Fold each of these.
Amino acid sequence: MKFSIGEFSKITSLSIKSLRLYHEKGILAPAEVDEFTGYRYYNEADYDKARTINILKHYEFTLAEIKEIINEFDEESEMLEQLHAKLGEFQNKIKHYKEISHSIESIIKHEKENKMKTEEQFDIEEKEVETLLIAGYRMRGKYEEVGEGFKILGKAMGRHINVRQ
């Protein structure tokens, strides 16, 4: 029995785009390709390869690793060495991520402690201050024109400028 690429896609849960890619990369060639239309047809024997590819994809094997495994081994039991190596990679990643996690937790704890100490160091007081004369002048322009604004402000304030009582 042969399946069109669409039917095979539904059966295997591999997208049509993935099946085309696997064909191009030599990972999963269809049983037959129509020479006139270019349609790909798969058979029941291709299902086992597709299932293996799905499993290896789920285990985060690269396409190159999948191709090597598919081309070199006929049975899943022969893949144990590759699976063992991948397990080692995952265990190393887990160890690395645990170290990162502990480091981040340490930073968070340290920052919380510093924040609490900072809050304890400062007392907030409310004070009353004497009435102050404040002048302001709004203007638009370039920074180098600020002097003109001070000149106008100085003329308006006269003797009260920069006087403290």
Amino acid sequence: MVIAPQQLDDEVSFKLYTLNRLIQQTYQAFLLPLNLTYPQYLVMKVLMEKDNVPVHVISSRLMLESNTVTPLLQRMEKQGLLTRALKCEDQRQRIISLTCQGKDMRHDIEQVSVLVASSLAEMEMDCTLANGLGGLLSEFIKRIQ
């Protein structure tokens, strides 16, 4: 099968890139008061699902290399949101845990996705459409991994 070159606006990757950028801008309005970046928000979501995990679990969950996640975790540790402790059985492995300050942000973190959903609804983004897109993207990610 021969695939013809596409114009930029027809590229699926460009559409995903643009959508990602626009959605992150929407999130940023709600993350700024929490002093979190979008990647930090994602780390917080992972740790709120399961606390006290090795770095590789966070990396895997976010589909990022550990050398990308480590500086992010270091900044979050300086903010007092989490701790990075050496695992007793394996001194090469760091266990990431939320601090009391990080745990106290649970309600605010949970509210971010609610606020973003409300914001998208105000833009007349239908939940059914968004959920359908989410399903398509999950399938696409599964196949491309």
